[in-house]
Amino acid sequence: MPDDSMSPERKSVDSLEAGVPVPFEWAARHDGEWTLHYSIVTGMDLAGGGVTVANPYGYTEVLPPDELLSRTSFEAYADMPLYLRLGFAFGVFEENAVFIPERVS
């Protein structure tokens, strides 16, 4: 059986259990425009089917894991303006970056 201790899901759960929220970068529409922004996962209940995301646009939402993955999938970038697609192509932006912060004593 594969070791999933290094998976983004496991690391995210471990971080949340330690009281540290998980920032991530994703593409989303805001007021009809594509934006790249960071959001914060503040809770994750995979068994119960919900991931709580604090969005920088001033709201919090609970998403089923499959919806979160859909909204952060490569398909989400299909209709993005050319300058954003070029940014991804040349490595200016990272697709679906998840950051696992660590506490420093």
Radius of gyration: 15 Å
Average pLDDT works out at 77
**Poorly predicted spans:** none
Number of strands: 4
Strand content: 25-35%
Shape: globular
Largest sheet, order of strands side by side? 1-2-3-4
**What string gives the helices and strands in order?**
HEEEEHH
CA distance, first residue to last residue: 34 Å
Describe this structure in words.
This protein is α+β, with helices and mostly antiparallel strands and 105 residues long. The chain has one domain. Helix content is 24%, strand content 31%. It has 3 helices and 4 strands; from the N terminus they run αββββαα. A 4-stranded antiparallel β-sheet has the order 1-2-3-4. It is globular, with a radius of gyration of 15 Å.
Can I get a quick summary?
With 105 residues, the protein is an alpha+beta fold. It has helices at 8-17, 65-71, 82-89; strands at 22-30, 33-45, 50-55, 59-63.
